[in-house]
Amino acid sequence: MINACFQSHNAPGNNCKDPTRGAFQIPTGATFEDIGPNVQDFKVTYFKYAARKAYDVHYEFVDGPIWNCTCPDFEFNDRLEQKTACKHIQACVDKINGTTRTGGNYEKFLVEHIH
Fold this sequence. Notes:
By secondary structure, the chain is an alpha+beta fold. 24% of the residues lie in helices and 20% in strands. It has one domain (4-26, 33-113). The protein has 4 helices and 5 strands; from the N terminus they run E-E-E-E-E-H-H-H-H. A hairpin with a 3-residue loop joins strand 4 and strand 5.
């Protein structure tokens, strides 16, 4: 199921149905990934529903990788306690690692939506 697309090609309420520019399935539930010893903060803008304009994602390494996200999925599914990623965290990891996904120009999507 598509869970992310370019905001510029997804009218409000469309929820990534038939986007003309690209649509992606970003997996959720992966174990927290180590991206190094540095603290990093990301602002992730719009992926599908636009419930909020942006979510804040925070990473630090304290006896292992610790990720936090302000999205409802992260909070309601106890992802911090389970140490599992929401799609916003996974996209940040993808951007750091240069991961590509099918569905359009994923690299450009990450550049436009993760700051």
